[in-house]
Amino acid sequence: MAKRKSKDQTTHDRKVGRLATEYEKKGYKVQAGTGRRPAPKPIGRSGRIPDIVATKSGRTKIIEVETPRSIKTDKAQMETFARYAAKKKNVSFDIVVTKPRKK
After folding, report:
1. pLDDT higher than threshold 90 for residue 80
2. Comparing 52 with 69, which gets the higher pLDDT?
């Protein structure tokens, strides 16, 4: 997990919650570790935990939310999720980068 400043962490968490809700509305079973949702299971030998795992009709999406700052600092985590998805049938990996709030 990337280390984020408090403001960035709040933005990150808000985006995770919004995306999780969007996927639920589309009929996905969502694991996100936010609100009432269960946390996703660790992936890879290093036990990295994605922000969202959404499953529907035998297809799984691994989604990692990053801020403009954190995307530069945790490449190993993103590589772990990308490798995992590439090796599994019907699994994809997406990175979502938050937009900074305007002042």
Report:
1. yes
2. 52
Q: Is 12 exposed, middle or buried (0-12, 13-18, 19+ CB in 10 A)?
A: buried
| 6-97 CATH fold | Trna Endonuclease; Chain: A, domain 1 (3.40.1350)
Residue with tokens 């691994």: 62
Provide the residue ranges of all domains of the chain, joining segments of one domain with +. 6-97
Residue % of the chain over a pLDDT of 90: 64
Tell whether pTM > 0.90: no
**Chain-centroid distance, C-alpha 34:** 11
Bridge partners (DSSP) listed for residue 19? none
C-alpha–C-alpha distance, residues 100 and 17, integer Å: 16
